[in-house]
Design brief:
Length: about 400
């Protein structure tokens, strides 16, 4: 079954998405997501200039061979641009294979392991009162697990908090906006936030928090200890993870569960973290870590070491990724949780999905494939708009991790 056409669709229904559509000689099509937030066009070029010419004429059924061809064959391995491009091809080919088999993707992967994927939503507020109101709203909507982020009293703009009345969306049109950071203020304030959330909502909701790579291992250990009384589901990205050994220090000093990996591209980014059991949840995604094919490798290694999945699911992952991930979550034996940051309604004009939110879970339908389709004519109504993630500075102006 030859691949006869492959094209990249760039659109901005609410935010930018890069989508790959592959067509085969018998008319079956598959979709993959290649969105790399703030660096979208680099992946478009990688696909259009270097990958797509090699795909035409290949057998769409040979997913593994194509993965190896694009990974080993490029000579230049790994990296977010390469791996997002490989993922888009891989997911589109899994979509095609599942459609040809007449099965939803989770069946092809090994079948259902659970009714639905437990998801967590994002409650945030500029003030503690706003954050508490957001938690109440997520609870009322049926979320069982809630990530809580809160502004800092003396800092104007920090990660994870909506600035206007609209939903939180980190990428902004135009050049990179700037946010501010103060580690001492943060370390003092966050435990108070969770004390208040537990006091108000009791032990029922599963609570999560994203540190977003801003602390040193020692500072993260301090925060982990201070959060222990509030029994978090996880503390995410406590410190940048290029130095995997850095997590030893955090791990030895706190029982707060640790999650990391949304920016990882391959199993090599988390091999030591997993093998030394330095983390509890691996957040690598189908989109940025090489598709369904490579996420199976990561999840399998994680499973050997009692590490569970907790895949990234922010809005910069398109409905195509979320659709594929819900299938993966439905099957993978060592599933932990799935992030769910809802796309704006306008995104739904372009992408149609076969997953739904039900009582705190994402449940996939039974359409063959991953169940997500794109309306290309509608997509053309929303052309690409340059947008960047923020950069972060300490209060003295020093550039910091965002
Ligand atoms: C999360 C993430 C996102 C990222 C975003 C960057 O846990 O949801 O940290 O909010 O900041 O995906 O592109
Ligand atoms: Mg995160």
């Amino acid at each position: 079954m030859k691949i006869t056409d492959a094209r990249v669709i760039v659109c901005c229904p609410g935010r930018n998405f890069v989508t790959l559509k592959i067509e085969t000689e018998d008319g079956v099509t598959g979709l993959g997501d290649a969105t790399l937030n703030g660096r979208e066009l680099a992946v478009v070029s990688y696909l259009e200039d270097h990958v797509l010419p090699c795909l035409i004429g290949r057998d769409a059924r040979c997913i593994e061979d194509t993965w190896q061809y694009l990974y080993r064959g490029a000579y230049w391995r790994r990296g977010p641009v390469t791996m997002a491009a490989i993922s888009a091809v891989d997911v589109a080919l899994w979509d095609i294979k599942a459609k040809c088999a007449g099965m939803p993707l989770y069946q092809l992967l090994g079948g259902r392991s659970r009714g639905g994927a437990l998801v967590y939503g994002h409650a945030n507020g500029r003030t503690l009162d706003e954050a508490l109101a957001a938690v109440a709203q997520f609870k009322a909507e049926g979320f069982r697990a809630i990530r809580v982020q809160c502004g800092l009293p003396d800092i104007e703009k920090v990660y994870g908090v909506a600035n206007g009345d609209g939903p939180y969306e980190p990428a902004k049109k135009g050049l990179p906006p700037e946010e501010q950071w103060s580690t001492p203020d943060y370390l003092r304030f966050v435990p108070q936030v969770f004390a208040k959330v537990r006091a108000e909502f009791g032990n029922g909701p599963l609570l999560l928090h994203d540190v977003h790579h801003r602390l040193s291992p020692n500072e993260a250990a301090r925060l982990g200890q201070d959060l222990e009384p509030y029994r978090l589901f996880w503390m995410e990205d406590p410190t940048p993870a290029e130095n995997q050994a850095g997590f030893r220090l955090i791990r030895q000093r706190t029982t707060t569960p640790l999650a990391v990996g949304e920016i990882f591209n391959t199993v090599w980014d988390c091999k030591q973290l997993i093998e030394e059991q330095l983390i509890d949840y691996i957040r690598a995604t189908i989109l940025h870590a090489g598709g369904v094919t490579h996420m199976r490798t990561i999840a399998a290694l994680a499973g050997l070491h009692q590490v569970r999945t907790g895949m990234h699911g922010a809005t910069d992952l398109s409905p195509v990724t979320l659709g594929a991930q819900v299938h993966f979550d439905t099957w993978v034996p060592n599933f932990g949780i799935q992030e769910l940051m809802l796309h704006e309604p306008v995104t739904g004009e372009v992408f149609s999905c076969d997953y739904r939110f039900e009582d705190g879970y994402l449940v996939t339908g039974d359409k063959p494939g991953h169940g997500v389709e794109i309306d290309e004519a509608k997509a053309a109504d929303y052309p690409y708009e340059p947008a960047y993630l923020p950069v972060n500075r300490l209060t003295d102006g020093t550039l910091w991790d965002w």
